[in-house]
Design brief:
The structure is a homodimer of 332-residue chains. In chain A, a hairpin with a 7-residue loop joins strand 14 and strand 15. In chain A, the strands form 3 sheets. A 7-stranded mixed beta sheet of chain A has the order 1-2-5-6-7-8-9. Chain A has a 7-stranded mixed beta sheet with strand order 10-11-12-13-14-15-16. Helix content of chain A is 29%, strand content 25%. By secondary structure, chain A is α+β, with helices and mostly antiparallel strands. The interface between A and B is large, with 54 and 54 residues.
Chain lengths: 332, 332
């Protein structure tokens, strides 16, 4: 019987290890590693409102370093605390963009268009996903009958244009809020502005609509602008910012547009002002009025900047609110 | 000049109406009504945990009249109040079922299998959606290397079988909790039971595993059963009910399995006992321990009965908890 010494044990261990490793060094007829998909599922979701079929279709989401003044009227540290409480990263902020297509039966109606092809390229596909997700949902852009613009900010309108400057929805009537048109298409308004966010986005917005002056139809508040779609005045974020009641039979939803930016900051804290508001105090007043109504009515809200599928109910919590997202329905 | 009388006006109005209606009565070369899609988007969602790619793949959801004893230890009216507070219907309850497939690189690992083909047919496709959603996610059932069963209830195991009784994942090793195997495969245990839910589900569970006695591998708690997958004892719902830490590098998630049934009832009210618990008091004790840990660690929890994509964080709220769902990421 061999006497085991530390030395022979180590030698044995080494030999064993080498033998054990040998097969790994020779190619073996084993199953290939499972390939990673590396991409997300197509971002669309459907639900019914009466006879209407709502297609929620994400345009993607932007993630960027949290600006110091993302919440205009509170220190960055407070915003970070709110992000942490929502289990979000605190050094960046992520803003989703979520148009919807309503199939009314007679018509396909798109509300807001997302960021379009130029921003799709610039962000390496993080935004400007609407065309790809429409395709996944089986919706041909040529079949869109009406495009309703809630307000004329770039994330809602750039997608009106194709990469070559043509019309992304060539057969659609384009409806815009009259007050936003008057504001954003006016040299006088632009020249009045101080340097800052709003002035910086004017040229891109103007460029999108230049040449469409005789094509767009301007709408007012408090009207049924097409059957089933009634405009609601929700000004502040922009002068003509508009929300909608979309109703079929006795069923309805509120499409809030940008009554709030991301809910874990600005719905949770409705007096907080996002840096993109043209009139932040009026926006905060609108927000309170809108969510008091929504929570009292237990209304379903579709929100452009809510996390996909971007629909939920609003629970009142003292002077604040909490978004209760809808539960995904695997059938419709 | 004609004298307008009420009679001629009415005649005129009638004539006008008839003329206006005429086009509707004749087929017109108009755009066809937009066809309703009538079906939901494929239910899968991806995220990364270290080098692992998690594919959350829904098996669907069951909606049924709220049983009087759905919450065993509280009156139906209290359950209805909690459902209403979560903006859910109060006469029915909806329970989602959500297996996951983890791509570890070398392996595809499925945790739980959903309801399978027989229940798919019986429910007209509301459950048993896993095979279709796997296909949509590009995952071939033949490529699954390992199936881990968290516990042996039917919604977790029936999907092991194809419609003809074959193996749905023919190349997979099947891992089951040793304590559940001992419980559910035992005539003595079955015969001890009073009439009720647990006894009623025994035969189907037995049938699923009959013939697999030499194929399944039984696992214990507190072990890394395959690289990256460590079992956690979470008994009560069933004797061998198991949760998992799935870890890659420094990243990890907790796959809770059925520590709670639907969160708006039983995570919100952790002492409430769902009618399916084998040992409801132990299940409640497990729930408190698990969510105290999860909320303290700010851990991401993947939950079989959470609304799709069935992942979120747990916020402590006094003696109760609140689920904060993850925000859908349009890229991964």
């Amino acid at each position: 019987m061999n006497k085991l010494t530390r030395r022979t044990m180590l030698a044995g261990a080494t030999a064993l290890t080498a033998a054990a490793l040998a097969p790994a060094m020779m190619p073996m007829p084993a199953r290939a590693a499972a390939p990673m998909a590396g991409k997300q599922a197509a971002g669309f979701y459907r639900y019914k409102v009466g006879d209407f079929e709502i297609n929620v279709v994400t345009d993607g989401a932007a993630t960027f370093p949290l600006p110091d003044q993302f919440v205009q009227n509170h220190p960055k540290a407070e915003a970070q605390k709110a992000l942490a409480a929502a289990f979000q990263p605190t050094e960046t902020v992520t803003v989703p963009f979520t148009p919807i297509v309503v199939n009314t039966g007679p018509k396909f109606v798109l509300i807001d268009t997302g960021y379009g092809p130029e921003m799709h390229a610039k962000t390496k596909g993080r935004v400007g996903q609407l065309p790809a997700n429409l395709a996944a949902a089986g919706i041909d852009p040529k079949s869109i009958d009406t495009v309703i613009i809630s307000h004329m900010h770039q994330d809602h309108v750039f997608g009106l244009r194709t990469a070559d400057g043509g019309l992304a929805f060539p057969n659609a009537e384009i409806l815009v809020p009259a007050l936003d048109w008057a504001y954003w298409m006016s040299d006088a308004e632009m020249n009045k502005l101080p340097e800052g966010y709003t002035k910086s986005v004017y040229p891109g917005i103007r460029k999108t609509f230049t040449g469409l002056e005789n094509k767009v139809t301007k709408y007012e508040w408090g009207k049924e602008i097409i059957p089933g779609f009634t405009t609601i005045a929700t000004p502040g974020h922009t002068p003509g910012h508009t929300s909608f009641v979309v109703a079929s039979g006795s069923a309805k939803i509120f499409v809030q547009s940008d009554v709030t930016n991301i809910p874990h900051l600005f719905l949770r804290n409705p007096t907080w002002q996002v840096m993109y508001d043209v009139d932040p105090l009026k926006a905060a007043e609108t927000r309170k009025k809108f969510y008091d109504m929504a929570s009292a009515e237990k209304a379903l809200i579709q929100g452009f900047h809510f996390p996909f599928p971007s629909a939920g109910y609003v629970e009142k919590d003292g002077n604040n609110y909490r978004l209760i997202p809808i539960t995904w329905n695997p059938v419709i």
